[in-house]
Amino acid sequence: MTVQPPSGNPFAAQPGQPAQPAPGNPYAAVPPQTSGNPFAQGQPQGQPQGRPQTSGNPFAQGQPQGQPQNSGNPFAPGAPQGGPGGMPGGCQFCGSVPAAEATVRARQGMIIANRTQKVEGHFCRSCGMAVHRELSAKTLLQGWWSVQSFLLTPFTLIGNLSARGKFRKLAEPSGGFQQPMVPGKPIMRRAAAVGVLIPLALAGAVVTAVVMDDSAGTASAGDCVRNNGTTISPDIAVVECGSAEAQFKVAERHDGTAQCDRNRYSEYREYGGSSDFTLCLEPLP
Fold first, then answer.
1. Whole-structure pTM value
2. In degrees, to the nearest 5, what angle opens at C-alpha 247 toward C-alphas 245 and 252?
3. Separate counts of helices (H) and strands (E) for the chain
4. Using 50, 70 and 90 to split pLDDT, how confident is the model at 168?
5. Is the distance from CB of 226 to CB of 244 less than 8 angstroms?
6. DSSP character string of 51-107
7. Residue 260 has what DSSP assignment?
8. Among 64, 81, 245, 246, which one is least packed by beta carbons within 10 Å?
9. Cβ atoms 239, 245 nearer than 8 A
10. Percentage with pLDDT > 90 across the chain
11. Quick one: pLDDT at residue 259?
12. Which residues, at least 6 apart from 246, have a Cβ–Cβ distance to it below 8 Å?
């Protein structure tokens, strides 16, 4: 016997199976989906509608009404949540008043280069003195180690002294959102104070080199000299006339390429440098 397939809808429910939803919109029986935060709880029945929805980070806590927002600069005047507020125009580090606007710098020499650090803004007395002492002490120790920095370091220190004068005129700080900085030891009581000796030592070395220069270029008529070299490669140095080292006396000195009377004097010439000159030397007895 031949069995005929059922006619009509091939997807109709078979006997003994639960009835399927009627064809049409396949999503009609799906309950509405919530949007936004997938972890949000449903709105309880009876709760007023129109409650503001959270956006962005689904785990972020709400900001209490009336609470100030935090800004990017952690040192900007302002109050931490729950703390006392800083005064307007107060110190940028602690929020205290009174405060003065100033700029404090530090300079570091690095042989062929130099680097500058600058801190500017409003400072209370304590924070200003702390920054001034720290940066000035660093400059005293590090600011002399290149030619450009050596020349600019004195101006940096003088500028810091000007800022220090502003800080000293301020009253003791108060009204801040945190404790002011501790100024610490005075500059001259810190280890970096030895940096004061660096320019003094360099200046002394230059003066000594100039005063003690005994090269032939410093010789003039009447001076006594000694040849520390040979006849072919002389090395003339100025010495005391009364010393046992004296060998010759400078009878004449001629700038340029003038020559001595070779019948009377020995001749020493330097040329090709910053200045050309000739020394006419007579032997000492």
1. 0.54
2. 130
3. 3, 7
4. very high
5. no
6. PPPP-S-TTPPPPPTTPPPPPS-TTSS---TTSPPPPTT--TTT--BS-EEEEEEEE
7. -
8. 64
9. yes
10. 42
11. 84
12. 224, 225, 226, 239, 240, 284
